[in-house]
Sequence to fold (848 residues):
Amino acid sequence: MKALYALYSDPDAAQHAVEELRRQGVSDQLITVITSQPYEEYEFSHRYKQTWIFWIAAAGGVVGLLIGLTLAYMTATLWPIVTGGMPIVAWWPNIIIMFELTMLGAIIATVVSLLVTTELPATRSRVYDPEVSQGKIMVAVEEPSDVDVPRLERTLRATGIQEVKRVV
Amino acid sequence: MTHRWGMTVDLDRCTGCEACVTACRTENNIRIAGPEQAAKGRSIAWIRVERYYEGDFPDVRVKFRPVMCQQCDAAPCEPVCPTYASHHNEEGLNAQVYNRCIGTRYCANACPYNVRFFNFGNPVWERPLELQLNPDVSVREVGVVEKCTFCVQRITAGKDQAKAEKRELKDGEIKPACVQSCPTSALVFGDLNDPESEVSRLSRSSRGTKLLEDLGTQPKVTYLQKQY
Amino acid sequence: MDLRTEQKINADLLRPLRHTSMSFYSLVAILGTIILVGFGSWMYQMWNGLAVAGIRWPIFWAFYITNFVFWIGISHAGTLISAILRLVNATWRRPVTRCAEVITVFALMIGALFPIIHLGRPWLFFYLIPYPSERQIWPNLRSPLAWDFFAISTYLTGSTLFLFLPTIPDFALLRDQMTGWRRRIYGVLALGWQGTTKQWHRLEAAMQIMAIAIVPVAVSVHTIVSFDFSMSPVPMWHSTVFGPYFVAGAIFSGIAALIVAMAILRKVLHLEEYLHPVHFQNLGKLLLLMSLLWGYFTFVERLTTWYGNAPAEMAVFWATQTGSYAPLFWTMVFCNFVIPFPILAIKKLRTITGCVIASSTIIAGMWLERFLIVVPSLATKHLPYTWSHYRPQPVEIMITIATFAAMVLLYTLFSKVVPIISIWELKVGGDAPTHLTSEEEEEKRALWRVRP
Fold:
């Protein structure tokens, strides 16, 4: 089975459900909480906070800078044409080109790493319920083994949920 | 030795007759704007004679100043062209490549002498005027900027002639259309790298000034001041 | 926030997407016609050459460059509001961010069109693009116009992504709530977003980086646009203050445009519960600050010119102070400073209506300011023999009007397909929609034309 989930109306109940599941021995990696808005203050939201994305953006900026440097230097020396008595490779204007391409590199690196780490666009179907966008919070257990399913269902029902849904 | 083309204009000798303007127009296939377009400021004159009046009648003094492209060494029109249409060639001329010009007109704005002109429309010569077009000079289409080239076609022709005859260029051999047609020889053209040429001699004159020199454009046209 | 409030927010903010009134269609038709006429004018100009425009020797830049600088200036609204307020954690920005970011993207697109419209040979505009061409030549990277290309491309890419990324969760909401072919399209745009903890964290981190990156880009873009002027030895263009002056002016006109846009949206889409007077008051305070800053820069520039007394510059100076451009100049000062200052400074007058009045005069005044930077200097250059006058022609006026219509049309169409207030950001802020006063309720009911 792909997943087992329940929908909660408020974040406290969802937090309680997550703790119950942990008590049942489900590892954090298999618990997925899906919300329509980020709940920063709640503990269930604290996983995955660490990220490399800032370093990737900086690296993207460096790559952009190098591209800018190369472009400015190379295009000027490929066909050296004198304009206004300025040197062929004029560093003051080149700083502008390099700056813009640095920022572009950082921006593109950020977006690409966002898409890669969140695995968007989604290629395979994921666990989701449209009621989430109505404000419900989904607490799901992914890939539960068949043995555990009845136990987990009982745990989730004990937190006050009438219906525990399955995704096959 | 590479040449460095320059010009001197003796303001004492200039009578304001505008023969230079007419000759330039004919030599360089400059389009005719017509009276309505000229009234709207679209006429093109690669060389123009600026006329300034001083004083009231009967003590009026008129000053004439022929202004053409000053072929500046530090030309403000060159670095601003995004397509390298306006650039400096090895002989010190500010060259305009019509094919590369996309008509941003930044060079025309940057030129403090306003010697750059824009083609507001396609050129039209009423018959039979198209028969008098100079085959050595390209006809510019709508949307490109053009200006005085020191008759670069004549410079090239002169150099080719000297090379074919296996001799050096003589001073005064190459004459742009304006220089050739000036009745008082107010305009002198030549190689500034040759210290013996007439243009070099005249540039060193004590009467010599440059137009808008304090802007730092380093123009190569020396104006010899009028003496009263 | 309880479920009922969440669902009310969803319903309210998705209503414009679900229900379309006759006034929407008629507005689109009118704007579309204006844009078509403007486009026709551009084709007419391309066919006949720039002789049909008002430009002449030596005033080679006029209306089109004014519009270019103006629209790029308007595009600075989004960055300031979204990025800077996001970085300082100002929570009142939440309903306002998407309105602002949309202005940026569309104003940039319109502004970037003008360098092509004003070209002598616009079909060769691609000469500006740095790619290995068969002509074996690259663009001149020393030219401010080449810098414009890089700057505007970077800013357009950045702001489009800045707009798109936080819209992904809202597209997911739309995918869930809509049906049929709309559901499929929103599903594609949502990229399969679920809302897992990891996705939220990554999105917020990415937005943080984008906000940090987009602010210097925005500052650089309008500085580079100002370099189009300050890099040439034209009197009163060659000024070192142009960089900061233009950026301040851009943010100034951008906030004004944002206030007008927000006021119109609030009325037309019935968002009174979401866009509160306090939003307008806060933006109004920022606008006041920018008005003072603009006044400061104008004063500094004019004082140094006047004190320096250089002949070429004084010719331009007097042309704008007392000469033929004086009426426009003093109108501009009136519109940018004299009218907005009391309205925005006095709390009682800083209402939504007051802010809109101030913003409208500011938009007009800033357009005039761009015009007065471009034309008087070119009309009064170094050699007095070359001085002349500029008269705008119908082609230029029509294209200018068409771009304003294009902005309104793009904005209208956008608010029809994407919720103009960022729904998830609103919910995060805990901004429950406030209860309207009884007058506001009456007003709302009277204007209600949408059948549920």
